[in-house]
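Good morning N.,

You mentioned wanting to compare the apo and holo forms, so I went ahead and generated the holo version with EPZ. This is what I fed in:
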Amino acid sequence: MPKIKIEGGHKLSGTITISGAKNSVVALIPAAILCDETVTISNVPDITDVDDLEKILIHLNAKIERETGKVVINSSDIINKEITEDLSKKLRASYYFMGALLGKFNKVDMYFPGGCAIGARPINLHLKGFELLGAKITEEDNHFIIEADKLKGNNIYLDFPSVGATINIMLAAVKAKGKTIIDNAAQEPEIVNIATFLNNMGAKIKGAGTSTITITGVKYLHSCFHEVIPDRIEAGTYLIIGSLLGHNLKIDNMIPNHLEALIAKLTEAGVDMEIGLDNIVIKEPKEYTATDIKTLVYPGFPTDLQQVMVTFLTQCNGKSSVEETIYENRFQNIKELRKMGAKAKVRKDNRKASIKGKVDLVGTDVSATDLRGGASLLVAALIASGVTNIDNISYILRGYDKIVEKLTNVGAKIEII
Ligand code: EPZ
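and this is what came out, ligand included:
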């Protein structure tokens, strides 16, 4: 199995350009099948999640052309057949085909989605939304058949502002008859990106980015061009790397105000950042002080940066605490970080960790446990003394476009062996 080999301790200088957002593009591609004509999506990151979604589109006989950074999709010959368990399991975002196929054909036949094992990750809120729109759901051994004679707008309250459920209900509602209101909707920037895409096709969605989204059904969705927003989690990962190793390191093509919570916490710890319109420059690392993190839904501290932040906190003087409120099992990377010398421990309810710093990390062999856990090990390897080999790197390559090239270009000693 390939590994990522890193020799730590090298200063990083130059520019890292951020790619399109994974958690936006994995919804945009399924959403594209709702269009009655051809759609073009640009700024598409080169990650394996996009490859896997392409496989599902091809399985459904949709036409997809892919060239660097762009996909062109036409679904006029799409066949609404079962999405096999193998294809459904490839990634969490396969579930967006539920909303898209239901929205287009009033029927979908597929299996429970895949995704990192960071918690139970049920889809009850998605299903509640589909039922309120008039769909009937039969489920047997994780095999879902969801169908409706016709979909009718309704008021849907989300018990939890779920990103996936908010987007999936939007997809099912865009062509439903009448008006749908989603209350307690998630407000992540990716949701705005999807709503803008659908509105560019002629959908009528208002309020995306707030906790109340209104969708008025339309009959026809015409072609459009759309751009994926920059990946705020990729940008946050490189910002944390820059805080630890950056010497005039510029993180470019990002949206600083999508990272307000992270920037506030890094500033609190003592990080010196020059914040531009679409970039942030780190002049040089400083001595940092411990701080406390609590993950919350947007615009709170993002759960997807919690694990990488734990690595940063090992370099902060004093005792930090991290509380993970979104997932029940998102500290698996800590046992691997401890192999490198981190002084970190997880409370028995697995919802809180405490980290003592500043410790010198030492390179060794470690295993990625999930996508963002893998990223936290990669950051640790970049600052550790000596060489680190990370295995299970397919997790990392799912969510970080050209990470080896981007880091090599700014002076890291990193390669895939
Ligand atoms: C999206 O997952 C992201 N994935 C996740 O990023 C991210 O961590 C998460 O949003 C929160 O920001 C994609 O966009 C593909 P949720 P999603 O529905 O939609 C519970 C990464 O590393 N829940 O907001 O699955 C659920 O169990 C990934 O890029 C229900 O209980 O997130 C979880 O505890 C990891 N019932 C919490 O809500 C439901 O029906 C957040 O889930 C749905 C969710």
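The mean pLDDT is 97.

Happy to go through it together on a call whenever suits you.

Best,
F.
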